[in-house]
Design goal:
There is one protein chain. Helix content is 14%, strand content 37%. By secondary structure, the chain is mostly beta strands. The strands form 13 sheets. Strands 6, 8, 9, 12, 13 and 14 form a 6-stranded mixed β-sheet that branches. β3 (12-14) and β4 form a beta hairpin. α3 (228-238) crosses α5. The N and C termini lie far apart (78 Å). Keywords: Acyltransferase, Calcium, Keratinization, Lipoprotein, Membrane, Metal-binding, Palmitate, Phosphoprotein, Transferase.
């Protein structure tokens, strides 16, 4: 069929005499209006290459591959190659996007995008911006509240000759993400440097250790690596939550918080704090999220073994940044684990000031790592948007599932623990008082001492634009001891399981604390600490001191007591002069006491209990510290030249008076090489 005049065609038919093709116009003309021919879609060009306009304008050009990856609330371009020119007077055309197993228009999982003359914000629409014969170029606008996820694209046409729908091509599936660059998206973040850090940076720093010995480890988030976006969407799909809820970042981060751990939904990472990692990888061996997420998807959703809090947090940061939610890993030192919603960290003693182990279920972890994510909170009173805390480490259940958050950091700071989600637990982690209780002869308990500055120290995250540590404690709590901080604590406690905790004052003329000089003790040497006592009264005081030190997992769970000084039956009185004078005792733990007991992180806990003879005042305190491990030093050998091999030396000094065995180096370089193990022996 050939074109004769504009809008008309003529046919060439085979001659019945000579069997040759002859133009029928020699005998007659049969005119057919082009607009009466069926309109179909021959091909779709989504302009989806990494260097194309769509990917660049949507800040998705760093994702691996040439799929169309877009952010909601922005327009994107596409070409349609049709079977004939499009005539707006007689033809109709619309796009259809479907996500999930049961797409529904009413739930936003089946989107019908009409052609319009002019695009308007906040709605799905398409406009023809260019024509080229049978080809038309569309500008498509998406809603800033659209569901994120993977959409199947088809094009429906309607012409005088009938209707037609293009065949679904998986290569034209569209990945939709949250959009921190769109003011109408609830994850919008104004500061460009912060977006570069909390959305686009694929390498970070995780902090561990103790408040006096903060260590840092690099973590490769790798959210743009090959297969990671599909792996993150796979995590969402494995949650079996309806895609109709994937437009709300509050709901999505709550789902991710549950899915990163494994106890009740076969999530990504299986936790293990036993120190035995047979059949899996030691949590300390991981240095990034990429291998974990790829393995989880490749194995069909079988949890990856093993992880601890920093692994859960690192993977959470990867998933949230990959999906477009600004996020960061946050480390809290002296992090409380409140098991009974009292919003206090409780320590119980019997009548003889001996620990009652079966009641002491609360604990204080040397450090704990969770996440902040950025979003508006239209479900909360005004002023509670911004950073929200979520925790993927499985500690306590929330509505029957191991998950935590998102909880407004503003609410946590002010003790507004009645605001969702899981604010009481996170408040207790950062600002609970440590309360010591003694059992009476009748079985009841009396509060004998409290520490108001025991938890929530040096809350840390990587600084924007650098590898420096940024202390964000002030975002989580008012300065310790201020009137604002005390009001927040007492406000929160009224909503806990022990609302009368602060009804009785406690005498405090003697105080005690443990201090450490310099960077603290090193692995393989003796640990030296100072016990400092202060007398605030005008009279001298005599003190009876009990101490014990135990090897501890960083979570606050004790493994074994390595040294104990018991003095209840034969106390050694220590005279403490009056009027705020200070008496300091030197406390030493020798290497041979702990050499065979250490666990991951090389952490120890010193527990002191004190009775003042003259007043019967009782004090107690705990001090956690770690033995510093040697630093790994990496030095390049020769010059580094693009496209050529290079070498590096990795070395450290063995601090122990014994030979190390089974030494393995794990080496990873984002964009350089995947994880490689080097067995040293």
């Amino acid at each position: 069929m050939k074109e004769l005049d504009e809008g008309y065609y003529y046919y060439a038919r085979r001659c019945c005499i000579c069997d040759k093709m002859v133009d029928i116009k020699m005998a007659f003309l049969h005119y057919i209006p082009v607009s009466e021919l069926l309109l179909t879609v021959r091909s779709i060009d989504l302009m989806k290459t990494k260097t194309g306009l769509n990917r660049l304008e949507h800040h998705t050009d760093r994702y691996y591959g040439d799929d169309l990856i877009i952010r909601r609330g922005n327009t994107f371009m596409m070409w349609l190659d049709l079977s004939r020119p499009y005539y707006p007077n007689t033809d109709r055309l619309h796009l259809e996007l479907k996500t999930g197993s049961l797409p529904t228009v009413a739930k936003g999982t089946h989107v019908i995008i009409p052609l319009v003359e002019e695009l308007e914000d906040d709605r799905w629409e398409a406009k023809i911006v260019k024509r080229d014969g049978n080809r038309i170029k569309l500008s498509v606008n998406s809603q800033p509240t659209a569901m994120i996820g993977r959409y199947q694209l088809t094009v429906a046409t309607h012409s005088p000759k009938g209707k037609a729908t293009s065949t679904h091509d998986p290569g034209n599936d569209i990945r939709m993400l949250f959009n921190p660059w769109c003011e109408d998206d609830t994850v919008y973040m104004d500061d460009e440097d912060e977006k570069n850090e909390y959305v686009l940076n694929d390498v970070g720093r995780l902090y561990y250790g103790t408040e006096n010995q903060i260590g840092a480890r690099t973590w490769n988030y790798g959210q743009f690596d090959e297969g990671i976006l599909d792996a993150c969407l796979y995590v969402l799909e494995k949650s079996v939550t309806p895609p109709s809820g994937w437009g709300d970042p509050v709901n999505v981060v709550r789902v991710i918080s549950a899915m990163i751990n494994s106890p009740d939904d076969c999530g990504v990472v299986e936790g293990n704090w036993s120190g035995k990692y047979v059949g899996g990888t030691s949590p300390t061996a991981w240095s990034g999220s990429v291998d974990i997420l790829k393995k989880y998807q490749k194995d069909g959703g079988i949890p990856v073994r093993y992880g601890q809090c920093w692994v859960f947090s690192g993977v959470t940061t990867t998933v949230l940044r990959c999906l477009g939610i600004p996020s960061r890993s946050v480390s809290n030192f002296n992090s409380a684990h409140d098991t009974d919603v009292s919003l206090t960290t409780d320590v119980y003693f019997n009548e003889n000031l001996e620990s009652i182990d079966h009641l002491n279920t609360d604990s204080i972890w040397n450090f704990h790592v969770w996440n902040d994510c950025w979003m508006a909170r239209p479900d909360l009173p005004p002023g509670h948007g911004g950073w929200q805390a979520i925790d993927s480490t499985p500690q306590e259940t929330s509505q029957g599932t191991f998950r935590c958050g998102p909880a407004s950091i503003t609410a946590i700071r002010n003790g507004q623990v009645f605001l969702k989600h899981d604010s009481p637990f996170i408040f207790a982690e950062v600002n609970s008082d440590k309360i010591y209780w003694q059992r009476n002869l009748d079985g009841t308990f009396t509060q004998i001492h409290s520490e108001k500055n025991a938890v929530g120290h040096c809350i840390s995250t990587k600084a924007v634009g650098s590898d420096e540590r940024n202390d964000i404690t002030h975002l989580y709590k008012h300065p310790e001891g201020t009137e604002e901080e005390r009001i927040a604590v007492e406000t929160a406690s009224r909503y806990g399981s022990k609302p009368d905790t602060y009804s009785s004052p406690i005498a405090e003329d003697i105080s005690i604390e443990v201090t450490m000089d310099g960077e603290g003790p090193r692995m393989g040497g003796d640990a030296e600490l100072n016990i400092v006592m202060r007398n605030a009264s005008s009279l001298p005081r005599t003190i009876n001191l009990h101490s014990q030190v135990a090897v501890m997992y960083y979570t606050g769970v004790l493994k074994a007591t390595v040294k104990k000084d018991e003095t209840p039956s034969c106390p050694v009185p220590l005279s403490c002069p009056p009027l705020l004078t200070v008496k300091t005792l030197e406390w030493i733990l020798q290497y041979q006491h702990y050499q065979d007991q250490l666990v991951d992180q090389a952490a120890l806990m010193l527990t002191l209990s004190v009775r003042v003879t003259e007043t019967q005042q009782v004090l107690a305190t705990q001090f956690s510290f770690r033995l510093r491990t040697p630093d790994l030093i990496i030095k390049p050998v020769g010059e580094a030249v693009v496209g050529k091999k290079m070498a590096a030396e990795i070395f450290f000094t063995n601090p122990l008076p014994r030979t190390l065995k089974g030494v393995v180096f794990r080496v990873e370089g984002l964009g350089l090489q995947s994880v490689r193990q080097i067995a040293v022996g």
